[in-house]
TrEMBL record, chain A:
TM region(s), chain numbering: 29-52, 94-119, 131-152, 221-238, 258-284
Compartments, record wording: Cell membrane
PROSITE patterns: ABC_TM1
Gene Ontology biological process terms, A to Z: transmembrane transport
Gene3D superfamilies per record: MetI-like (1.10.3720.10)
Zinc among keywords: no
Stated family: Belongs to the binding-protein-dependent transport system permease family.
UniProt topology in membrane: Multi-pass membrane protein
Name this protein carries in UniProt: Dipeptide ABC transporter permease DppC
Chief subcellular location: membrane
Stretches assigned to the ABC transmembrane type-1 domain: 92-281
TrEMBL record, chain B:
UniProt xrefs under InterPro entries: AAA+_ATPase (IPR003593), ABC_Ni/Peptide_Import (IPR050388), ABC_transporter-like_ATP-bd (IPR003439), ABC_transporter-like_CS (IPR017871), Oligopep_ABC_C (IPR013563), P-loop_NTPase (IPR027417)
One GO cellular component, as annotated: plasma membrane
Gene3D superfamilies cross-referenced by the UniProt entry: P-loop containing nucleotide triphosphate hydrolases
Pfam families in the cross-refs: ABC_tran (PF00005), oligo_HPY (PF08352)
Family in the record: Belongs to the ABC transporter superfamily.
Main location: membrane
Top-rank taxon: Bacteria
Keyword Glycoprotein on entry: no
Name of the protein: Peptide ABC transporter ATP-binding protein
Domain ABC transporter: 26-272
UniProtKB/TrEMBL annotation, chain C:
SUPFAM superfamilies cross-referenced by the UniProt entry: MetI-like
Annotated ABC transmembrane type-1 domain residues: 96-301
Transmembrane portions of the chain: 98-120, 132-155, 175-195, 236-262, 282-305
Keywords: Cell membrane, Membrane, Transmembrane, Transmembrane helix, Transport
Lineage summary: Bacteria, Pseudomonadati, Pseudomonadota, Alphaproteobacteria, Hyphomicrobiales
GO CC, any one term: plasma membrane
Subcellular location: Cell membrane
Name of the featured protein: ABC di/oligopeptide transporter inner membrane subunit
Provenance organism: Methylopila turkensis
GO molecular function, one term: dipeptide transmembrane transporter activity
PANTHER family cross-referenced by the UniProt entry: DIPEPTIDE TRANSPORT SYSTEM PERMEASE PROTEIN DPPB-RELATED
Family named by the database record: Belongs to the binding-protein-dependent transport system permease family.
Domain of life: Bacteria
């Protein structure tokens, strides 16, 4: 029957190089565009004071809820007369900072728990994994809400709450990688004893775990942004008048019938960033981690 | 099979064996098939009488399975280039539309697959898969279909048939699975049965039983059967006619006894003599991606591996000629 | 088989135990003195001490936990110090049904539309149609639901005035009103799942259609549609149900946001206002309900495996 079915393109692990990413980008126009969009957000966030026409909390007393138009407020103003374009640009700062911060916390926590579980084995591993199961039993947003209820509101609290909520999924993947590498490393360390043996294992495991973790982290940034802006949208994340997109959308929700741009502008900024990040994430995943593809 | 019993088959002058007798059920004429740059079948012709059995013999990659799939219309058509004719009861299968095929598949032509364990859908019971053609194609009621299904399973030698109907394929042994496949293939009394290596996934001890079963059941129904096999001895025991294929070309074809008793093509000789050597390095089929396979290159496909190859063999393709009661394509036949 | 089930059940109970300890500690970790909060203006040291004793807060922590767990299991979830009503009544009898109605409608919508779209994509692999669906699913999986909800309100509620945009009407009281009020929220919440179901169905079906049993089914005369929709699709069920179970968390999380967009009085609204009012008992109730729902659904999926895939049944 080999005659009939054409051989399927096998999933092989391509060498993880920047050259590889570049080759991929050149053949995938959308990946390239998404990278450019994401980069534009990063630049806008970094240079917000220079890019934004107004300060994010400046109130224009003459222009409340003015629609997008050519003039001083290209994308209109909100109910406080604050410039939506400027707030949206500053909002990129919060979105990216919170997203990256939360992922950093989640990845670090996941690394520690996953390594501990994977390397210890036995009862410790079992207990740790049940703990991770418990973490995974709660959706990130619900867990973040629970943490916020203890921690209180604010940017730093949101980073911490979302970060802790992300530890579960990171731990599980790290442990999986550790188990895989450990099997190989122990073979090599077979002749060695005691400390030396541990050293070999450690030397093998860490680098082999860090790289997939970094890929994972890249992919989860957009999720962290989604959850944190969701918290702010619920009104329990970042507090006003911080130019956070979630907050801005929540505020605009009340005015959607006569001033739809108030929610529309920050919402579009958020949606475009999330879509771009997910295209970037898909590309990164396809490049570096073929086995992850099927989970998506 | 005693040689004394072999009846010399007369060849009326002027008639070529390729030109089939009037009662031919199937005539494959000059069938060529390409996939991309690769030539899978090269000018294959053979005929099959009603009620007769024919074996396509050769190693993997010879194109045997491809012929079987072409005969039931299951080649991935857009990717495959087809040339030549496949006349089934007068109608050319090569030009059949999907609509035509729906009237043929399962009703008049059916197929037994190589590996029954993967050819039975794991998510449906044996009964569901056996009764679907009975109900859909023969229009039986549910109760009738169930009754018939039990008879069919008993017919293929499955004990406890009634309860087997409610079993899932994985709950049966490999041999039982293949018996179920045979029952399904024969359930609609087709005129032509294609059996693609029906025993290759089975334990050696039951291979002969299964072949026997297929033969008995087809004969009982007066159906014709094409076996795809790699075992020349098994093929010649089971079938009336043999077509030996190599690299998509017919090497030698004729009545089973004639070919087995006195093979003339070096390849047939090789197949007969060293059944055990078939899987060795020496007889490894040409890699289908190699340049020599890429296009209609001149010469005999087997020449690179042929011990008695002449200089001519590589340059000029030997014609398929009628000689000594068979068709043969070789410049330097044995004996 | 029974062994597998028993292990799964045990593991599930273990996870729920850990979750219960965690949500119990939530109350302990919470800043401020709950007793003081409860007493409000009636505060006095004597009242404080007597309420402490009454609530058992002067007992050792382990005993408090066991009492709390026991109470939780029999529906004694404490009393809201704002409404003075039992939390169980509010959280379980009023908020949870709203969230479940929303989640179930969204899931039904996603399956009913997503599976056919996925099948069409798989059978028209590498065509313009397939590419269009791929673009839609990519957008669908990454579009923030709360923003989508607002867009839908703007388009269908405000511009076209086709649907009411706010509030919940229980479909068990007023079926038509319930459906009308649930339409936009359900569409909002279903988008992510729809996109995911399309992706999953497509990928798994393409794989299934390459299996020999598909060729065998066609060889016995089954028409193409039956081969795809019956033989192929049946084999896609297992991965589909597995992932849907694992994604239940995302469904509940999306429901929380969607409720807020459409002012539905569900678990999301309940938890949000509880955070703002520092009603930790209510947050706790939300956490426990969500975790139980997620863990028990996944247990059900695990136990349903042998029915979804006969290969997992005993020989």
């Amino acid at each position: 029957m080999a005659d009939v079915t054409l051989p399927a393109a096998g999933l092989r692990r391509r060498p993880a190089t920047l050259a590889g990413v570049w080759a991929y980008a050149r053949s995938h126009v959308w990946f390239l565009i998404a990278c450019a969009v994401a980069l534009a957000y990063v630049l806008a966030a970094a240079f917000a004071p220079w890019v934004a026409p107004h300060a994010p909390t400046d109130q224009d007393m003459m222009n409340f809820m003015s629609p997008p138009a050519w003039g001083p407020h290209l994308l209109g103003t909100d109910s406080f007369g604050q410039d939506l374009l400027s707030r949206t640009i500053y909002g990129a700062r919060y979105a990216l900072a919170i997203g990256l911060g939360a992922v950093a916390i989640g990845a670090f926590g996941g690394l520690v728990i996953g390594m501990a579980a994977g390397l210890s084995g036995g009862a410790v591993e079992w207990a740790l994994m049940r703990f991770v199961d418990a973490l995974l039993a709660l959706p990130s947003l619900i867990m973040a809400i629970a943490f916020i209820s203890i921690l209180g509101q604010g940017v730093d609290k949101v980073v911490l709450a979302v970060g802790v909520a992300l530890i579960g999924p990171f731990s599980r993947t790290v442990r999986g990688d550790v188990l895989q590498v450990k099997a190989q490393a122990f073979v090599e360390a077979a002749g060695l004893m005691g400390v030396k043996r541990l050293m070999v294992v450690w030397r093998h495991v860490l680098p082999n775990v860090i790289f997939p973790l970094a890929v994972q982290a890249t992919i989860r940034v957009s999720y962290a942004i989604l959850v944190s802006s969701g918290l702010s949208f619920l009104g329990i994340g970042v507090t006003p008048p911080t130019p956070d997109w979630g907050l801005m959308i929540a505020e605009g929700r009340s005015f959607v019938s006569f001033a739809p741009w108030i929610a529309g502008v920050p919402g579009a900024a958020l949606a475009i960033l999330l879509i771009a990040l997910s295209v970037v994430g898909d590309g990164v995943r396809e490049q570096f981690d073929p086995k992850l593809k099927k989970e998506a | 099979m005693a040689a004394a019993l072999a009846i010399p088959r007369s060849d009326p002058a002027g008639a070529t064996p390729a030109a089939a007798p009037a009662d031919a059920l199937l005539r494959v004429e000059n069938l060529s098939l390409t996939r991309g740059e690769k030539l899978i079948l090269d000018d294959v012709s053979f005929a099959l009488k009603r009620g007769a059995t024919l074996a396509l013999v050769g190693e993997s990659g010879a194109g045997k399975s491809t012929i079987a799939l072409a005969l039931i219309g299951l080649l991935a058509r857009p990717q495959v280039g087809l040339d030549g004719r496949m006349l089934f009861d007068g109608a050319d299968l090569a030009t059949s539309s999907e609509r035509d095929w729906l009237r043929l598949r399962g009703r008049r032509i059916s197929m037994i697959f190589q590996d029954a364990s993967s050819a039975l859908n794991p998510c449906f019971t044996v009964g569901a898969q056996l009764m679907t053609p009975l109900r859909r194609l023969l229009g039986l009621s549910k109760a009738q279909a169930r009754k018939r299904a039990v008879e069919l399973l008993e017919g293929v030698g499955l004990s406890d048939a009634e309860s087997r109907l409610d079993a899932y394929p994985h709950q049966l042994s490999g041999g039982m699975q293949q018996r179920v496949m045979i029952a399904i293939a024969l359930s609609t009394n087709p005129e032509l049965l294609l059996a693609d290596e029906p025993t290759s996934a089975l334990d050696v001890t039951i291979q002969a039983q299964i072949v026997r079963l297929i033969l008995d059941e087809t004969r009982k129904r007066g159906a014709s059967c094409i076996f795809v096999l790699h075992d020349l001895a098994l093929a010649s025991q089971a079938c009336d006619e043999i077509v030996v294929l190599y690299g998509g070309q017919v090497m030698e074809a004729g009545p089973a006894e004639t070919v087995l008793r006195e093979p003339l093509h070096p390849y047939t000789v090789g197949l007969k003599a060293c059944v055990l050597e078939i899987d060795t390095e020496e007889l490894e089929p040409l890699p289908s991606g190699s340049p020599s396979f890429a296009s209609k290159r001149p010469g005999c496909r087997f020449a690179p591996r042929c011990a008695s190859a002449l200089e001519k063999c590589a340059g000029e393709k030997p014609p398929l000629i009628e000689t000594r009661g068979r068709r043969l394509a070789c410049w330097n036949p044995v004996a | 088989m029974a062994w597998f089930a028993a292990r799964k059940v045990l593991q599930t109970l273990m996870v729920l135990l850990i979750v219960s300890v965690a949500s119990f500690s939530l109350l302990k970790l919470a800043p401020g003195d709950p007793v003081q909060l409860m007493l409000g203006s009636e505060y006095s040291p004597e009242a404080h001490a007597s309420l402490m004793a009454q609530l058992g807060l002067d007992r050792p922590v382990a005993e408090q936990y066991l009492r709390w767990l026991g109470g939780f299991l029999v529906g004694d979830w404490g009393t809201s110090f704002i409404s003075k009503a039992p939390i169980f009544q509010y959280a379980f009898m009023e908020a949870l049904p709203v969230t479940l109605t929303l989640a179930a409608s969204a899931l039904a919508l996603a399956v009913l539309i997503g599976v056919p779209l996925g099948v069409l994509s798989a059978t028209r692999k590498d065509t313009g149609w397939d590419a269009a669906v791929a673009t839609l699913t990519l957008t669908g999986t990454s579009f923030p639901s709360f923003y989508l909800g607002i867009l839908l309100i703007w388009i269908f509620g405000v511009k076209l005035a086709l649907f009411p945009t706010l509030g919940f009407v229980a479909p068990w009281n007023d079926l038509w009103g319930g459906i009308v009020h649930m339409t936009l929220p359900a569409i909002t919440l279903s988008t992510y799942f729809l996109a995911m179901i399309v992706r999953l169905t497509r990928a798994n079906l393409i794989e299934a259609l390459e299996q020999p049993y598909i060729a065998a089914a066609r060889a016995r005369g089954e028409p193409r549609w039956r081969v795809v929709w019956v033989h192929g699709l049946r084999n896609v069920m297992l991965p589909l149900v597995t992932i849907l179970g694992l994604q239940l968390g995302a469904l509940l999380q999306g429901a929380v946001l969607t409720e807020t967009v459409f002012s539905l009085p569900g678990v999301g609204q309940m938890m949000t206002s509880a955070v703002l009012n520092r009603e930790y008992g209510v947050v706790q109730a939300g956490v426990m309900m969500t975790a139980c729902l997620f863990v028990l659904t996944n247990l059900a999926v695990d136990l349903a495996y042998p029915y979804l895939d006969p290969r997992l049944r005993p020989r």
